[in-house]
């Protein structure tokens, strides 16, 4: 019997239309991911449900048309794709609670830092399709950098679904699980290094006579523009940096000061210690 032409495409479209997304935990990161899905038109608000123990975070979800509950099990009953967005120390208890409701039709995605796929698979029914996602704070403005790793029950379809949905929230890459702690040191914590650098740049301009608000805006736009050039040109940052330096000019004089202050080695050390700390936390 000949295959019905376009069947796969139609099925994929139907699945997207029928996709029901749940969030167990309704904090800042969960809200940021949900906003990304809504803004990109990936999932209608009526197909999103979030649970939290109190109403403190749920009001904003209701305002955007999502459904809310205080019952984690209800999220499992109403959703096929479930994001576990609780604090890491709360997650084992939550997994114990929802375990009876998890079925083969569910795709479970954990956002909890330091909770390994091995732990998730041990605490969920055998064969559960589980993935581990590590977002960063700019996901809340749809400019995040996220990596995810899949457990043994999750296949190419689940990975493709997650990547397709989360592309609306920023960069999303599948990686081996061992990269997740490095991503924490590079990007999860890394946004704070960038804020510190931006603050220092702006303060330098204030020292030279520019008003603080203007200096902060220009510093932020400078970082945004430099990052966009890195992503869009695909050039190595050293090449882009060299392009800015004219012989005997302002930039090379400034870079000499940064090198004297060991900026490069200090930032590498920061990524290293944050990664090690993430590894230690995963062992606890």
TrEMBL record:
Q: What is its EC number?
A: 1.5.1.2
Q: Which reaction does it catalyse?
A: L-proline + NADP(+) = (S)-1-pyrroline-5-carboxylate + NADPH + 2 H(+); L-proline + NAD(+) = (S)-1-pyrroline-5-carboxylate + NADH + 2 H(+)
Q: Does the keyword NADP apply?
A: yes
* InterPro entries xref list: 6-PGluconate_DH-like_C_sf, NAD(P)-bd_dom_sf, P5C_Rdtase_cat_N, P5CR-like_CS, P5CR_dimer, Pyrroline-COOH_reductase
Give the multimer and partner information.
Homodecamer; composed of 5 homodimers.
Compartments annotated for it: namely:
Cytoplasm
Positions of NADPH binding? 72
- Protein family membership: Belongs to the pyrroline-5-carboxylate reductase family.
Q: What class of enzyme is it?
A: oxidoreductase
Where is the Pyrroline-5-carboxylate reductase catalytic N-terminal domain positioned along the sequence?
A: 20-114
Q: Which pathway?
A: Amino-acid biosynthesis; L-proline biosynthesis; L-proline from L-glutamate 5-semialdehyde: step 1/1
- Any one GO BP annotation for this protein: L-proline biosynthetic process
Role according to the record = Oxidoreductase that catalyzes the last step in proline biosynthesis, which corresponds to the reduction of pyrroline-5-carboxylate (P5C) to L-proline using NAD(P)H. Proline is synthesized from either glutamate or ornithine; both are converted to P5C, and then to proline via pyrroline-5-carboxylate reductases (PYCRs). PYCR3 is exclusively linked to the biosynthesis of proline from ornithine.
Q: Record-annotated residues binding NADP(+)?
A: 85-88
Source domain of life: Eukaryota
Q: Which residues form the Pyrroline-5-carboxylate reductase dimerisation domain?
A: 177-281
Tell me yes or no: is Nucleus among this UniProt entry's keywords. Answer: no
One GO cellular component, as annotated? cytoplasm
Q: Which Pfam families match?
A: F420_oxidored, P5CR_dimer
User: NCBIfam families, from UniProt?
Assistant: proC (TIGR00112)
Entry's SUPFAM superfamilies?
A: 6-phosphogluconate dehydrogenase C-terminal domain-like, NAD(P)-binding Rossmann-fold domains
Name of the molecule in the record: Pyrroline-5-carboxylate reductase
Give any GO molecular function from the UniProt entry.
pyrroline-5-carboxylate reductase activity
Q: Which UniProt keywords apply?
A: Amino-acid biosynthesis, Cytoplasm, NADP, Oxidoreductase, Proline biosynthesis
């Amino acid at each position: 019997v000949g295959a019905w032409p376009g069947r796969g495409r139609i099925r994929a479209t139907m699945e997207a239309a029928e996709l029901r997304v749940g969030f167990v935990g309704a904090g800042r990161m969960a809200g940021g991911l949900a906003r990304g899905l809504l803004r990109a038109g990936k999932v209608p608000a009526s197909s999103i449900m979030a649970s939290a123990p109190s109403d403190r975070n749920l009001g904003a979800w209701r305002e955007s048309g999502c459904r809310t509950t205080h019952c984690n099990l209800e999220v499992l009953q109403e959703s096929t794709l479930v994001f576990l967005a609780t604090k890491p120390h709360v997650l084992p208890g939550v997994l114990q609670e929802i375990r009876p409701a998890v079925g083969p039709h569910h795709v479970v995605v954990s956002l909890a830092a330091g909770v390994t796929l091995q732990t998730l698979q041990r605490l969920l029914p055998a064969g559960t399709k589980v993935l581990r996602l590590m977002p960063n704070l700019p996901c809340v403005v749809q400019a995040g950098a996220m990596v995810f790793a899949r457990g043994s029950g999750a296949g190419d379809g689940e990975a493709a679904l997650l990547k397709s949905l989360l592309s609306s929230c920023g960069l999303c890459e599948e990686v081996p699980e061992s990269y997740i702690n490095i991503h924490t040191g590079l990007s999860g914590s890394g946004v704070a290094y960038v804020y510190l650098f931006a603050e220092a740049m702006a303060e330098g301009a204030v020292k030279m006579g520019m008003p603080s608000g203007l200096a902060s805006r220009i510093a932020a736009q400078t970082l945004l523009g430099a990052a966009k050039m890195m992503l869009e040109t695909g050039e190595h940052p050293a090449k882009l940096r060299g392009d800015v330096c004219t012989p005997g000019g302002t930039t090379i004089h400034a870079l000499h000061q940064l090198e004297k202050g060991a900026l490069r080695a200090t930032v590498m050390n920061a990524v290293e210690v944050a990664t090690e700390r993430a590894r230690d936390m995963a062992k606890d």
